[in-house]
Amino acid sequence: MAVTDKNEVKKDTVTLTIDGIEVTVPKGTNLIEAAKAVGKHVPHYCYHPSLSIDGNCRLCLVEVKGMPKLTIGCNTMAQDSMEVFTESEQVKDAQKGMMEFLLVNHPLDCPVCDRGGECQLQRFSMEYGLSDGRAIDSRRKFPKEDFDPLIDLERNRCIVCQRCVRFMDQLGGERSLVVVNRGNHDCIATYENEMISGNRFSGNVVDLCPVGALTSKPYRFKARNWELQQVQSTCTLCSSGCRVTHWVRNGEILRTTPPTRPKNKRYQLDDETMEFICNAGRFGHDFANSDKRLMAPLVDGEAGEWNAAIDETAKRLNSVKEQHGADAVGFLIGGRSSCEEMYQINQLARGVVKTNNIDWRGGLLSKEAAKAWSVAFDAANGQLADPTVYDTILLVNADIGGQSPVDALKIKESARFGYSTVVSVGYRHDPWFANRINATVQVAPHQTAEFIGAMGRILTSNGEILSTDAANLADTIQADHKSMMGFLSQLQNTERGLLIFGLNDLGGLNAPAVTQACLEFSKTMGDRFKLLPFAPDRNARGAFAMGVQPDRLPGGPLNDDETNSRMTEAWRKLPKTAGLTAPEMLQAAADGKLKALYVLGAEALWNYSDSGLLEKALSNLELLIVQDNFPSQLTDKAHIVLPGNLTIEGFGTYADLSGYVIRSGQGRRPLSRIPAQQHCATLGEIMLAMGNKHALTNAHDVFVKVLELVKVSEAVDPDALLLGGPGESAPIWPHNTPEQARPVISSARPFSYYSTYKPAYRLDNQAIRQDTEAKLAGSKPVGAAEGDALTLTWAPVLFGKDPKLDLSPSLDDVREGGEIEIAPHTGRHHNIADGDTIVVSAKPNGDGVKGVVKFNEHMAKDTVFFAQNGIEFDATSGMQTLPAAYLRKAGN
Amino acid sequence: MPIADYTPKMLVGYETLVSDFRESLDSYRNRGGYEAFDKVLRKLKPEDVQAEVKSANLRGRGGAGFPAGVKWGFLPKEPQPGAPHYLTVNADESEPGTFNNRPILEQYCHTLLEGIGITCFAIQSHHAFIFVRGEYFDAQKNLNAAIREAEEAGILGDKCMGHDYKLKVTVHSGAGAYICGEETSLLEALEGRRGYPRLRPPFPAIKGLYQCPTLINNVETIAWVPMIFRDGVDEFKKYGTEKSGGPTIYSISGHVKKPGNYEAPQTVTLRDLIYHYAGGIRNDNKFKMCFPGGTSVPLFFEDALDVMMDFDSPPSKGSFLGSKAIQVMDETVCPVWVCLNTMHFYRHESCGQCTPCREGSSWMYKILTRLERGTGTMEDIDMLEEICDKISGRSICALGDFSTAAPRSAIKRLRHEFEEHVKQGCCPFKDKMDWHEFK
Fold first, then answer.
1. What is the pTM of this model?
2. Which of A132, A180, A182, A186 to mutate to test the interface with B (most CBs of B within 10 A)?
3. Which fold has domain A372-536?
4. Can you tell me the ipTM of this complex?
């Protein structure tokens, strides 16, 4: 990825010698980093490139000619003609002394410590310490305390480097961890020993801890790290698309960490990693080990042989096709499937069954929403790999904090370091995220599109923003005039902006109007705002590129001649009739018009909120084929269930929200105890069985084929990707700058620490926007609830219920979304307090959903919010207005 | 000058005072108080004030003895927009045996306030903080009363003494941590955080309190400033040495007949302080050793009795003036016990931020305990010295170095007494001492 001008390392450099080797480094590089440049390792514990410099471990002492004392490498900046010695007698003596001090009170319980083998204390003791211990006195002991449901704290091993304290403060965004007590009795603690459950990133302190003080509870006493096989893969839970390493023994995933890196001739967990992952990704892997996992195909509920099941599938699909026509078959794909699987099922639908009824947007309630998604993804030209290139990041109805936490963390960091001003507009903002960005604007759902439009008109009407305009706009949403003026001038002064707009909330009801408003806004702002539609599905951009929707083909729109002829050549004759979108397919199934449904990935329907229609649609089907690995309500109803490989067990490529594609899995070696049937192979074999002689049955071949057919924008080396190392993307983290309050130092490390790691390729998504207006013309915002009712809103959240995470008991204590959220003033107006149990009903005093209230100050007035995968509720079908909600205290 | 001729300039009539006395504004004005402040505001420019203090050779009385005028000059010449200058008076007097700031804080508050006024004017600061040790309740009470008095009289406030200069003085109570006497952890504590020393650079003169240029001076340093402008530079320099102007206050405690605070010219010798001012050793015992400046400096032994107690002479005998707190020990005192006692303090007061001080002080405490009990070995004595080497110069702040001063100097001079503990299997002084943990 190109490093942008803004983040380019300053031109001026300094030249110094380290152990006699001359080296030129950028100004502001500290001596630890400068020594790395000449291949010298200066040991350190407290220094971490993503955190502020604390200088407390004193292990990185180096000798600088002319300085009376040894100086710490982390807080000493390289200067011209400096002479640094990292291996002199004095330095070695200091390192020995420091190692001895660190071990004076250490319990030396390596045999029972989970960190053993990847412990920096062990490593540096061997490399820099004394061979003998002289501390014969009694050792300090702390009582065992607990502060997180997922993290184990063993204070006796702690060396108080405070990396965890700084991480929670600076990246986690809350000062929940502190050091208490003084001197030798100081230890890491929380206020009054309270639990800190609820921070989505707390798991990262486990990786940051250089010793065994913080370890993962689910992984506790499970394994030694050197016994484990490392599988470089990617997380498929959300659109952040983090790279991860799964640590596997006998086919069982024991832990998940950020990607390991080659160090000392083998891949190791990097205690200096700058890639942070969320707790769902880190602890939510238990589903892969679940006993409930399906291994054999089920035909009519009975387990059978693969060949028979595939033949049966082909036979039944053919039979439905013959009886009712090709358009009586529909295909639904989950957003977590790989590009290869999506390509295969697309070929099955269009090239074999010959229908355009294929879609991956199963959560949507209307076909207008599906259309809006197509337009939005077509227009996507922004990226989140490096949010710091944007002066302003404007989010509209995009719950990135709740649905895509690591992207949210990147945006938050960009705001913290002052690269970007981040403002979120919408009816409900995730509290964690909202409290850590620059501002939120609360706008009722039905007003959002109108608000964006009005904003665009004010900003483009003339050179200057009139205060009356700002005041009028502020009045429409009852906001403060002065802040509105500040907000508008920020937007007007933006040179490089990013507009992220959410598409999946409210079952997509708001998507058409909001998409149209955002596209128009970007256009009127002279394209200073890049656009990025936000959908939380891991491979949303991949699905779009693979064309698994009625109006697209792989690499282009359905009505594009070039794409059409290219795909006709690949797949022979293409179906001519218009296809159905996901909501239409369900409606058609409920009406009895659609007879067969093929579902790849049960998550395709897990956040569909109209359960009445879904129930009816599924029970009306003649044939339901579900290709998924775990039993669910969907597999219970299915006539044929075809399980397959998990992400880490096969080769697959996935695109993140920015379009960067990375590969997953080990590729060549299935990891489960019984090698799993590959989903790609299943689909290929079905095609073969249905008479297509050209179908591919190997994911690698599909990948190569995809590269031929899909436009990509950055260099691809498929050979390296197929044979070589792990999936690589380019995660990027802001690093410390000198402007920070306590941290002092600018690390001169280039902005992208992993800039040498390339993504496989980037999906080419040149905006095709000529006919945007035509496509979405006339989209009306959904109406508000009428009368004195509140407006009911809903969206999924990552830490809520999820077909995979539900099988991960580790996460039970950190689940979110079990509460009903309202704004505090709405609560006060209805005489409801934070924590009350209330009933939300569609009619005054009617039956409804019972739940606990959580006040969220970042919510629009008179709005009620449910996490749709947190609380069971039923949104009424076919909504043109948002459902009304009435609140009352339970028991009244 | 002969010490007999010297009359106190700061602790005026101190020996006759009752303990809860505070000099009132009227009393202070009657003896020429606030005239210097008025003169400075009326006649001088900030840079002139700095030059004057520089020429008076006023040196920081907190322990390091750094020239005050030079330190003031480290601040930017003019406050930049958004970065006002602050003065922080370090009144976190918690060095063992040190109580020479206490009379200034409790009794002679107005002297300090006048000094603050002149200093703030010199560095163009409009807000001064006095960070008072948490245990000094009376000092906080009296300082606040004095500030109120001065504000009511128009000496402090929006128009100081009628001139176009505004100044606010805030008293902040510490929470009882020795480490907060270190200037950067004092700033951390003042900002409401845990008292941890900061890494330097940046230095407080560039980024101090609230990341703004900050001057931090000891109470006594500031309190001597009015004298320079009231009596003149020459008069002030008369009571000092060539390199360090002005008289100073010594705290004498331990085995002397009359412990207390004594103001004297810096030309005074240790012998004069002990035998003239403090009346000699108790029971006319033999002098064995003393800390010349709190427990953070190496011990003085008999050969140092005639050393002059200014900033520059004690190093010739291997110690420092430090906080000018002389703790005298007679022949009954066990040097191991002294080290153990000081180490108890340092291990308790180490903030715990950096490794050598946190782990080293508690380890040394354990070793010293063993030695004093009589269960130590000869190797332990060598190991103590080695640990001292591994701590000093390698910690974030000076507390690490301070903790090594006593054991290092004691082992160097009285190694045989340490060895005696090992040989006898007990403390050889335990019957002589009034109180002993391991009797």
1. 0.91
2. A182
3. Dimethylsulfoxide Reductase; domain 2 (3.40.228)
4. 0.94
